[in-house]
Known about the structure:
The chain is of the alpha+beta class. The protein has helices at about 10-15, 25-80, 145-150, 185-195; strands spanning about 85-90, 105-110, 115-120, 135-145, 155-165, 165-175, 180. It has one domain. It is built from four helices and seven strands, in the order H-H-E-E-E-E-H-E-E-E-H. Strands 1-2-3-4-5-6-7 form a seven-stranded antiparallel sheet. Strand 2 and strand 3 form a beta hairpin. It starts with 9 loop residues before the first helix and ends with a helix.
Amino acid sequence: MAWPKLRKSQGTDREETQPKKALPPAIHQRLKRLARKLDELPAKDELRIRQARELEEKQRSAGAELHQLCRSLVDALNSILDNLEIEITPAAYSAGMLDSPSGLLIQINASGRIVQLVVHAREPEVSSEHFRTPYILRGAIRWFNQEFLERQEIQENQIFYCIDAAGGAWRYYDLRTRKTASVDEDYIAGTLEQLL
Length: 196
């Protein structure tokens, strides 16, 4: 037995040809402005991504610069020391150290006299929240020995990688004296000297 053929509904064969309603001029102008802003999004997103990459690269090179500063000081001292070898940890810098939740820790150990440079996890953007000069990394330098620990006294200054039109540089800030200056080999050697 053959099944009867079903007829298609005539309404489904025809395309709907209802005329579009014209939008009121105010809404049309608003949609044009919205469309223009939406069209600008890919360029803005690309700029934001590029700026984030540039910031990350600057932060990584700033971490390497701080480690190299400490490494140079330790190597210079070890080359003229006779009875002691100063240790630096980590011995080599890795860019991934800044990406760890605890940040970067560089430690100089001169027979129990410790200088630590701690750099917090990377800042998401240029900041001036903790220091008046814009910076992209912040942390602290601490120095102590056994006597300091027995007195529960650890010396500490804040450090910041500040940026300006000329580039960037590490600076320290002493909360007690409000003094600020460059973090260089002489400054780090001075912190170590206070432990002798």
